[in-house]
Amino acid sequence: MKRHGPPSQPDEPRAEDAATDPRGNMLVHDDAATWLASFAGSGRGTVDLAYLDPPFNVGAAFTARMGPSQRRTRGQRGAGPVAYHDAWGGLDGFLSFLEGVLSGLRELLSADGTVWLHLDYRSVHEAKGVADRVFGGGTFRSEVIWVPGNGARGRAGPSITHQTLLVYAARPKARIVWNSDHPDLREPYADTSLSMHFRSVDAQGRRYRERVIAGRTYRYYADEGRRLGSVWNDIPAMAANTPIRAEGTGYPTQKPERLLERIVRLSSLEGATVCDPTCGSGTTLAVAARLGRRFLGCDSSPLAIEVASRRLRDAGVPFDLVQ
Ligand SMILES: C[S@@+](CC[C@H](N)C(=O)[O-])C[C@H]1O[C@@H](n2cnc3c(N)ncnc32)[C@H](O)[C@@H]1O
Known about the structure:
Elements: E1 2-4, H1 15-20, E2 26-29, H2 32-37, E3 47-52, E4 60-63, E5 82-86, H3 91-108, E6 109-119, H4 124-135, E7 140-146, E8 163-169, E9 186-187, H5 191-197, E10 200-201, E11 207-213, E12 216-221, E13 226-227, E14 231-232, H6 257-267, E15 273-276, H7 283-290, E16 294-299, H8 302-314, E17 319-322
The structure holds S-adenosylmethionine.
């Protein structure tokens, strides 16, 4: 095990402490299901939020862009080193991998914890059946449609321009952490709603509407926006020429930090433990650390571990590397 961390300051937790602290951050090079199974029996309640962004069952190898002459693509000419293979010998092979990882996560989740499973049209429908079986009836809580804004739009038929995140609770009827009133977790009211309903103005000049529900009057301010719905189209993908390019690591299929910020804020409290068993470039881990959460990350790709380690070290985040 290697220990990483910034130079310590008096009264600040040191990397050495993080290594011996059972609650320290951890990055593990392993197969996700094998690693999760190693907690068996001892890890129950350890994880408050799990974000799982596995390969999407594309049937190709994904390469990284580690230098200016290389391309981040699916194994074509001019491509950089292979980051990971996304070929499972068919859908059944992929679903069986997924089942192993989800079963491991179920054993680790805290009573109010959630698992976010990020997929696309290639497998999300069949994967929902697997997740329903693993977590049990009554645990499926939501589905978020993420519209990254990229991708080709074909002429020959309808294009699929979204990805899907399935949200599961640890147990049926569990009361999950869901911080929906956080100011960063709100969206503007629709224009039609603003013009039709928000016609009153208070002494400070703020527009509002009032509604009477069960005999009580509730006031809603236009500038506070409404709670997030389940379609997220305000977070662009990690594509070149967008303002978020600076966070790009060159790792393929890297997700934007804003997406993870939203998920981590919605589904965990400060001090919580966030787990990403297929962490790739470490987006979840970097965001969790920045938002005051502890992380447990894993990936089977040596390149992912290299990129995530560098990213965390550059951000001054202490963590233990287990390989
Ligand atoms: C879609 S990428 C994750 C990208 C990541 N969310 C990010 O922002 O960089 C999927 C990751 O799953 C990893 N992976 C594939 N099979 C795995 C396995 N059996 N165990 C652990 N990780 C695996 C791949 O190496 C790859 O890094």
